[in-house]
Design a protein that fits this description.
588 residues; alpha/beta; ten-stranded mixed beta sheet; eight-stranded parallel β-barrel; 13 helices; 24 strands
């Protein structure tokens, strides 16, 4: 007689489990392939902290700190003047007014401006019934106006091919989704022009119009480039045809604006052979538009990416893959003495290769794995530039926002529905750093050579610092990174600041933090129950949680013999910014 009640209980439990699984499957934030599906990165309660010693030398500089972080981009240009896009452009502009740049694809594509994933259009160029050019800058102006209104400048891409100029115009606009094959986006826009003179004139007219609208001095501050990843799927012509398309575009730009800053080749990866042939062409080859020797080349660019994987139920990042591409391409550039002084801008420098894609290996994006990876990788980009003696000007983050998508849908973005993700706060930290870059050491840092070879794997995490000084202020960014998105012990970190003035007796310390509880709208959203329709009050709470957050009140520490000691408890994947300002004793 006891069997029936037991069967009833078992049935109830089974139904509850099935219901819970169904609810989880219907939640975009916890669906397979979303960032929320990844294991929690919070450290285990049983893990004992380990000790880390970091020294920051305030009197030993490594030269001026270049704000290489101030470049951003996205496939979808039309988002820039939409609700959430305008909001995020404004946040980027606040970081460093008139020094932040935005690069986007599809600026010359034919269409009515309706955005879609990995698509955008402006209808800048069409032709009448007689084949005469018709220029319409209405949508291009909306995009660039939205940048300039918020203190952001264009890194203007001359591409892609308008339908009326394409040698293979049909099919033209794609209808790609994250479930589609990536190659489906390659349609009529990625072919060479059928008339190179019309292509050159289009580039000339665009720059000419920009000068008329924004002024010559303003447009001379922009960057210009031709196409994207011509060594890959984005170009359906030959290398020779791309060189010709490139030269005609550059000639059109420079005819309108002789001092225009234009560069390339914006290749995918290190592309050693392709880059060398491009540089040889620009330096010593015959210009295919003018017949003269060489093509103007004001800055150099390539696009390095990492390679995350989903292994044994968790995300494993590929920081080694990312840095190896940079190392290889820097080596190629350094082998040309004429190019070593030229500015380098990494045209897309990211943990993976597709912002609009989704999948289990991309489950790092919403949380603190993305922010700690960004801190650790940007510091090593500076190191690699120093090693090769090249002039690293910028490293562009290919992440923006996606309009009208579910909250925290697993795209690589800086904000979701107007709510900033943790990674955005790393750039807010970088924006506070200025002056000179300081020497620092850590007994838990993974060396550059080890990271290039092995990444950050096994028992040892990367706990290290990147620091700057301007006047009486030192900023030290400290991170706790590991390639594996798994729980781990916190780092009990002692940061010793040396080389302070001998007269200093006290220092004021402010700490800003990104972790599970600070600067993290994603965990705040999860605590709410992951609502896809937040109330007004919930949305305001999420907005606040997405801002860079102080970890406690400012505190005062003693300075003795030019040294100050700071203690920071860093959970795994946390990033802290320590802002230290000191004062000498008051004079009588």
């Amino acid at each position: 007689m006891r069997l029936i009640p037991l069967l009833v209980v078992a049935a109830v439990v089974l139904l509850a489990m099935l219901s819970a699984r169904l609810t989880r499957a219907q939640d975009p934030a916890t669906a397979p392939g979303s960032a929320a599906a990844a294991p929690s990165s919070a450290p285990s309660a049983q893990s004992a902290p380990f000790t880390v010693n970091i020294r920051v030398r305030a009197d030993q500089t490594a030269g001026p700190l270049k704000p290489i972080w101030r470049f951003f981009g996205a496939d979808e240009p039309n988002y820039a003047y939409m609700k959430d896009g305008k909001k995020l452009i404004g946040e980027l502009g606040k970081l460093k007014k008139d020094q932040v740049y935005f690069r986007t694809h599809n600026l010359l594509c034919t269409g009515d401006g309706t955005p879609a994933l990995k698509w955008g259009s402006t209808n800048a160029y069409t032709e009448d019934a007689q084949g005469n050019p018709v220029y319409d800058w209405t949508i291009v102006d909306k995009i660039f106006d939205s940048y300039r209104a918020q203190g952001v400048r264009p890194m203007a891409q001359l591409g892609f091919m308008p339908k009326a100029l394409s040698t293979h115009p049909e099919p033209y606009q794609h209808s790609w989704t994250p479930k589609s094959k990536y190659q489906e986006i390659m349609t009529g826009w990625c072919y060479p022009p059928k008339d190179y003179d019309k292509w050159r004139e289009l580039c000339f007219q665009w720059v000419k119009h920009s000068i008329e609208r924004y002024g010559k001095e303003e447009v001379e501050q922009w960057y210009w480039q031709v196409w994207n990843e011509p060594n890959g799927a984005y170009w359906k012509g030959t290398q020779e045809e791309w060189f010709k398309t490139h030269d005609y575009a550059v000639d059109g730009v420079r005819r309108a604006l002789p001092n225009a800053r234009i560069g390339g080749p914006h290749v995918a990866g290190a592309a050693g052979k392709y880059m060398r042939e491009y540089f040889e062409h620009c330096l010593r080859g015959t210009n295919l538009a003018t017949g003269q020797k060489g093509t103007p080349l004001d800055y150099l660019s390539f696009q390095p990416k990492g390679q995350p994987k989903f292994v044994e139920g968790h995300v494993r990042m590929g920081i080694a893959d990312h840095l190896r591409v940079i190392n290889s391409a820097f080596g190629t550039i350094a082998s040309f003495p004429e190019l070593k002084p030229k500015p380098i801008i990494l045209g897309e420098s990211d943990p993976d290769g597709c912002a609009a894609c989704q999948g289990p290996q991309l489950g790092y994006r919403n949380g603190t794995m993305y922010s700690s990876y960004t801190a650790a990788s940007f510091a090593r980009k500076h190191e690699l530039a120093d090693r090769h003696g090249v002039n690293l000007e910028g490293a562009l983050t290919w992440a923006f926002t996606f309009e009208d998508q579910p909250y925290f849908a697993g795209f690589r973005q800086l904000a979701s529905n107007g709510v900033d993700l943790p990674v955005m706060n790393v750039f807010r930290m970088f924006a506070q750093m200025s002056g000179d870059r300081l020497e620092s050491t850590s007994d838990s840092a993974v060396t550059l050579d080890d990271m290039l070879k092995n990444g950050v794997r096994g028992e040892r995490p990367d706990v290290a610092a990147f620091a700057s000084r301007e006047g009486g202020k030192v900023c030290a960014m400290v991170w706790h990174y590991h390639d594996d998105d798994l729980p781990g012990a916190a780092a009990d970190t002692r940061v010793t600041l040396t080389g302070l003035p001998a007269t200093a007796t006290k220092a004021r310390v402010r700490e800003y933090r990104i972790d599970q509880e600070h600067g993290n709208a994603y965990t705040a959203w999860q605590r709410m129950g992951s609502p896809q329709k937040p109330t007004t009050e919930q949305y305001a709470e999420l907005e606040k949680a997405g801002q860079l957050t102080p970890a406690g009140e400012p505190r005062e520490v003693e300075v003795k013999s030019g040294e100050a000691e700071l203690r920071v408890n860093l959970p795994r994947q946390a990033v802290s910014l320590l802002v230290v300002e000191w004062a000498a004793p008051a004079s009588n």
